[in-house]
Recover the amino acids of this structure.
């Protein structure tokens, strides 16, 4: 698992950047979602991928058990996922409204001030 994860993160980030460089606003949103998933997976893996007990310090001990995952990156990723979901929902609403007004999803054709 530790060997596969960097390749998955790299693939998500590369696919996200590729999609964000396209001219379609739908592909831009998909690229944003892929990039945020790659970043979340990177932060999540920074906490350690081990199976073990909870990182609780027992009475009379000074350190938690050796096999434990850091809970801080898990909490940060959970918060980032909620924020990313809200931003993505708002962006989908904006793209839908823009498509209804301009009748195109091409970003280059949207740069007009004419009505």
């Amino acid at each position: 698992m530790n060997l596969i994860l960097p390749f998955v993160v790299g693939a998500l980030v590369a696919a996200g950047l590729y999609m964000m460089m396209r001219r379609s606003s739908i592909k831009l949103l998909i690229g944003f979602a892929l990039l945020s998933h790659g970043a979340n997976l990177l932060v999540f893996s920074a906490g350690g991928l081990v199976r073990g007990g909870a990182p609780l310090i027992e009475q009379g001990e000074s350190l938690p058990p050796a096999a434990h995952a850091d809970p801080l990156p898990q909490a940060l990723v959970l918060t980032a996922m909620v924020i990313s979901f809200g931003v993505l929902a708002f962006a989908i609403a904006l793209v839908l409204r823009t498509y209804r007004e301009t009748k195109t999803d091409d970003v280059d054709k949207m740069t007009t001030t004419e009505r």
Q: What stands out?
A: The chain has a mean pLDDT of 85. Residues 59 and 113 are 68 Å apart (CA to CA).
